[in-house]
Amino acid sequence: MSQKLRTAAVLTALALPFAAHLEAQTPRTRPVTQAEVDRITRDAILIDTHDDVTSKTVTGYDIAKPNKGGQTDLPRMKGFLGAEFFAVYVGAEYVKDNHSANRTLEMIDTVRTDIIHNHPNDFVFATTADDIIKAHKEHKIAALMGIEGGHAIEDSLRLLRDYYALGIRYMTLTHFNTNNWADSQGDVDNKDVPKHNGLTPFGKDVVREMNRLGMMVDISHVADKTFYDALETSSAPIIASHSSCRAISSHTRNMTDDMIKALAAKGGVIQISFGCDFLSERYYEAAKPLMAELRPKFMEAMKIADPTERDAAIEKLEADAAAKVPPATLADVVAHIDHAVKVGGIDHVGIGTDFDGVGCVPSDLDSYDKFPALTRALLEKGYSAEDIKKIYGGNLLRVMHAVEQQAVALKNTPPIETVYKK
């Protein structure tokens, strides 16, 4: 069997389970017990594919201390979280004068030094699905990394390979900015004409090289055409690391039903984001004028040099916003999970909170220690313990295994040497 046929067979096998769980859940008739919730909390490997606390640790925040203005700290992670994909977030401002690579390396270092090295009893460096499973057995949190913003590679496949060697295991192809080889949802949202109509030939080579390395392709933040180009180009399942359902909230960072179906058909997963505007159409519409008013103030606050003063200023702005527009709720999270399961199947939905990366999350699900409430709500909705384990981490582990296996199949393929040309 040719390599192409073997790949097609693997992806077809991955996609088969998704058609079997499209029917609506049957609500429970018997009460959910605390023992059930506790057992799932203990046994499930909760994997969050996107957390931005790194933007705080890189400026000196100690993750072991209470994060009063955010959602992520070690006391609220322990006992609930199995694995964290820490965001190696590289803002668009670093594109100027080619500072993206420098910022990427700083963000990688804050994960490896400030989080893992400084807290070895709680975190363990991980790069594979098996590493995550091993960490769970050892009662530690597996720490992984995903780059947010393809401009981080500065149009160099050599940098992409360097980042993989340093531990990066997924890359979001764009952030809110279109880069030199992929269109972003952010630019299209702002009525800019798509620059590339999806992925350029070099962008497709980026995807192929990610497949060869064993790095997951992440399509959160990309324009819709970029999503379909990436899906067609990739020989391994792809992920949406922090996106929700556009049928419920029309935010264009969310995925349409057709996109969710297509993602599932190739074995991928949509990781539900907890950002209020992604979860709630009510919040999304009400927050638009407020965000237009507050955005310049947030930008000014971000320029404050002192980390303590900066955090205090941002926290005040977030509190002001929350007072004016009530946040989304736990019920909204359940609605998105349930919709994604009905559209794509139980094997293709996961969790990507975007904690510490958005201005608003549900107050009743604003930290990892509140996940038992989500567990209870899903049980009451009719989801089984096995269903919940898949959503919390099992589905993502399957994708990681598939991406790793595809890299093994491509191990004798030479590195792509295409050089970006303007």
UniProtKB/TrEMBL annotation:
What Pfam families does the record tag this protein with? Peptidase_M19
Q: Which GO terms describe its biological process?
A: proteolysis
- Would the keyword Signal be found if you checked this record's keyword annotation? yes
Q: Provide the alphabetized UniProt keywords.
A: Signal
Please list which residues make up the signal peptide: 1-22
- UniProt xrefs under InterPro entries: Dipep_AS, Metal_Hydrolase, Pept_M19
Mind listing the GO molecular function terms for this protein?
metallodipeptidase activity
Protein name per the record:
Membrane dipeptidase
Q: Which organism is it from?
A: Granulicella sibirica
The beginning of the lineage is: Bacteria, Pseudomonadati, Acidobacteriota, Terriglobia, Terriglobales
